[in-house]
Automatic annotation (TrEMBL):
Gene3D superfamilies for the chain: P-loop containing nucleotide triphosphate hydrolases
A GO-annotated cellular component: cytoplasm
Keyword terms: DNA-binding, Isomerase
GO biological process: double-strand break repair via homologous recombination
Entry keyword annotation includes Lyase: no
Pfam family, one: DEAD
Keyword Acetylation: no
Domain DEAD/DEAH-box helicase, chain residue ranges per copy: 32-108
Protein name: DNA 3'-5' helicase
Source species, domain of life: Eukaryota
Length: 122
């Protein structure tokens, strides 16, 4: 059973598409829009897609509609976490790549204080 804990209504798919294009420069496809909308509705989401198909974009899209909280993206490789961090920062979104080398008390404190919107964990 899916449980929603978000009281703000999720935007419609066309609004998510247009806002993503305007702010991130990408035009998401239908499955990406549905994943982002489900996330904005407060649902737990599992997304399975092939390599290079654009799985990361639906994690970023909710950042455009919810200014509170942090998104945690778990990646299988440190390199992917670092790439996500770089791409998000190029878009003006504060992010941190966490790995065994960067999992410091100061970085966790920065996250707790809201200095980063995205944590990319490898």
């Amino acid at each position: 059973m899916t449980q929603s804990n978000n009281t703000t209504p999720a935007p419609c798919l066309s609004q998510i598409r247009d806002t993503t294009k305007q702010h991130l420069g990408y035009r998401p496809c239908l499955w990406q829009l549905k994943v982002a909308r489900a996330t904005l509705e407060g649902k737990d989401v599992v997304c399975v897609a092939s390599t290079g198909s654009g799985k990361t974009l639906p994690f970023w899209m909710p950042l455009l509609f919810r200014i509170e909280g942090i998104v945690v993206v778990i990646t299988p490789l440190n390199l992917l976490g670092t790439q996500n961090k770089s791409q998000l920062e190029a878009l003006g979104i504060s992010a941190i790549a966490l790995s065994s080398a960067t999992a410091t008390a100061q970085n966790f404190q920065d996250i707790a204080e809201g200095k980063h919107r995205v944590g990319c964990v490898a």
